[in-house]
Amino acid sequence: MILQYSVENYKVFKEKATISFIASNYDKTTRENENIQFIADKNLRVLRSAVVYGANAAGKTKLFESLVFFKRFVINSSKEGQQGQLIDVQPFLLSEATEHEPSEFEIVFLYNGAIYRYGFEVTKDKVLSEWLFYKPKSYEFQVFYRDVVEGTVESHSTYFKKGAMLHKENLVRSNALMLSVAAQFNDTICTDVLNWFMKKCKIISSIREDRYKGYTMRRINQQDCHEKMLHLIKFADFAIQDISSKTFSEEDITDEMSAEMKEFLRDKILNEKAEIYIKSETTHHKYNASNKIIGNTTFSMDEDESHGTQKYFYLSGPILDTLESGGILFVDEFDARLHPNLVLKLFSLFNDQKLNKQGSQLIITSQNSVFLRSELLRKDQLWFVEKDRFEAAHLYSLSDFKAQKVRANENFETNYLKGKYGAIPYLNHLDSYEELVCEKEK
Question: Most buried of 113, 125, 371, 430, CB within 10 angstroms?
Answer without folding.
Answer: 371
